[in-house]
Fold this protein.
Amino acid sequence: PDLARNAVLEIRAGTGGEEAALFAADLMRMYTRYAERKGWKLNILSKNETGLEGLKEIVFEISGHRVYSFLKFERGIHRVQRVPVTESSGRIHTSAVSVAVLPEAEDLDIEIDEKELRIDVFRSSGPGGQHANKTESAVRITHLPTGLVVTCQDEKSQHQNREKAMKILKSRLLELKREEEEKRRTEERRVQVGTGDRSEKIRTYNFKENQCNIFNINRLAKSC
């Protein structure tokens, strides 16, 4: 089911300072062009820019035919080795950017109790004109049980920022839910399979004695 979903992507500049932020912007342009070629729709949910047109962080959703199935392998650390535009001596730098790809959550996937949320509003600090900066339109949502925090300040309307922040939060909670489920399955498998050590046995097949010791039901079976 996840493969047919839309996707929420999060790009964050990592090691490399301003060069990492510029590389994050390059990746954003790459995904934008790829989405255009595929006929997908891209919608920016949250953005934090730098002074040199780089990106500290950007969160956006891409909707279209089987988006998540095409983009899920993009998650991870992307590295670049090049001479930055900010480098005057021509040295090659290595910078890193992280990319997270989440299946877009639907209302049926995640139910959020309003009592578990702390919602703060404040004035936008980024681009957006005088209206955005003079009114408390920016929204920060904290999910108290998990500590997840989502901030959105790109829209002039507080309602729109809250709507976008909730969409990001739901996708992150869905991913967290899936990670916990995967850990549970891994632990169940470990309990069932163990490490392969001889002491972690439920059954011993003794070919020489032509018998089988079944330890989990305390039974000895012999062949006729």
In short: The chain has four helices and eleven strands. The CA atoms of residues 26 and 151 lie 23 Å apart. The longest strand covers residues 93-103. The first helix runs from residue 18 to 38.
